[in-house]
Amino acid sequence: MPKPTMTLKQLAGILNVSVSTISKALNDSPEISDATRARVKEVAHFYNYQPNRIAQNLKSGKTNIIALIIPSLQNFFFNDVLNGIEEALRETQYHLMINLTNESSAKEAQLVETLSHGLVDGLIIAMAEETQKQQAFDHFSPSKPIVFFDRIEENLNDFVNIKTNDAIAVENAVEYLMDKGRSTFALISTIHNLNVGKERKAGFVKAHNTHEKAIAHDLILESTKENVSAQTLALLKENKVDGIIALDEESSIAAVQACKTLGIERNRDIDVIGYASQKLAENMTPQLSTIDQHGDRIGKESVQILLDILQLKDYDLTHIKSELVIR
């Protein structure tokens, strides 16, 4: 049978001392004698006394909790970031609270509002798609330090942005295909409303402009997660291309599936470079070449910067470079 739990007031009544004495004894205050401290701890243990951490946090103004707000855990990139964050926090006194927005700006605003009122010490955020699409940033309050990653807004000057070289990474991917002798490229994306999608598209455009190569705008497919598979299949049926740059995991899978359905042999008839987890890319046949965002490094960097801010230290903001992985 479990032992009943006790409050400070109840413990004080059992021991016939003040609540203040109980609190000081449990916190090893030198004001309390060794004998009293030992007796208080013995009785507290017997009655399974658990301190009220929320009350303690409200009193101290510190929670030792960091909140992560992301759109989803189904995206491989956010899983990599989460792994990096958890690894970085492992040797600290901080704990992680994970929150999902499901791409809703309203949900994001609610989470930021709730968490900023004493529940956490700081936040790490990748914005919801709806937030960026609507350009609705008023709910990001400077009352708590915030580190943004991946989905960022340059004009939010009160916060830190972890930037990556999205445009350059895609530009390098197109350059690689051109060097292989590929000439006609399709661009497929379901993230065109996001800053990362726009920057990756800019890299695609720049590579064409650098080589004074015209862009076939009917080969740029900006779709939704629900429609990208059917629309990619239609695009490849109607157009002959020998290279595809897919800007996200859904687009990458759609491109691979469309090639398989149409009997287009990847790495011979066409090259596809996309974004996908290492496990997914390596288990495709043939394997998929990808742009590696190094999500685990981004997670670690986000934690380090946030902890530096919380500890009032200077921090170094480094750019983590996405890299082309040819398989």
Automatic annotation (TrEMBL):
Q: Does the keyword DNA-binding apply?
A: yes
Q: Does the keyword Transcription regulation apply?
A: yes
Q: Which SUPFAM superfamilies match?
A: lambda repressor-like DNA-binding domains, Periplasmic binding protein-like I
Matching PROSITE patterns? HTH_LACI_2 (PS50932)
Q: Which Pfam families match?
A: LacI (PF00356), Peripla_BP_4 (PF13407)
Residues forming the HTH lacI-type domain are 6-60
Q: What is this protein called?
A: LacI family DNA-binding transcriptional regulator
